[in-house]
Amino acid sequence: MGCAGSSFAKGEGNKKIRKPKPWKHSEPITRAQLVQKRDEFWDTAPHYGGQKGKIWDALRVAAEAELSLAQAIVDSAGVIVQSEDLTICYDERGAKYELPKYVLSEPTNLIPDN
After folding, report:
1. Cα-flanking dihedrals φ and ψ of residue 62, to 5°?
2. Better pLDDT: 7 or 51
3. Residue 11 located in a structural domain
4. Could you tell me the CA-to-CA distances from 112 to 26, 27, 29, 38, 102 in Å, in that order?
5. pLDDT of residue 13
6. What's the total number of domains in the chain?
7. What pTM did the predictor assign?
8. pLDDT (tens digit, 9 = 90+) per residue, 12-53?
9. Residue/partner pairs of 91-98 with CB below 8 Å, 24 or more apart
10. Sign of the C-alpha dihedral computed for residues 15, 82, 37 and 59 taken in this order
11. Which domain range does residue 52 map to?
């Protein structure tokens, strides 16, 4: 038995997911560049720890889904949402998952591809 604050209390609902706040990339970026950054992140993210087959895959699908579907995905995968925009989450074992804003939404300075 652990400390009451050390785990997600049973019966307590997960935080409701919301859209990330608008953000600006350090320099203007094209959609193709954004897609490339996202692909690179998802390809390397499991190497930072956590559960590849379950949690990382669920987070990727949730990041690419509409909010209501994303909520259902994280709830069914057992993801504990720390920040409502999904930038910080935990699994049931306490492993931390940090998602950069660029995998969750588009920057305000997105420019057209050439």
Report:
1. -65, -40
2. 51
3. no
4. 16, 14, 8, 17, 16
5. 55
6. 1
7. 0.83
8. 457 899 988 899 999 999 999 999 999 999 999 988 888 877
9. 91/50, 91/51, 91/54, 91/55, 92/8, 93/51, 94/7, 95/49, 95/50, 95/51, 95/55, 96/49, 96/50, 97/45, 97/50, 97/55, 97/56, 97/59
10. negative
11. 29-101
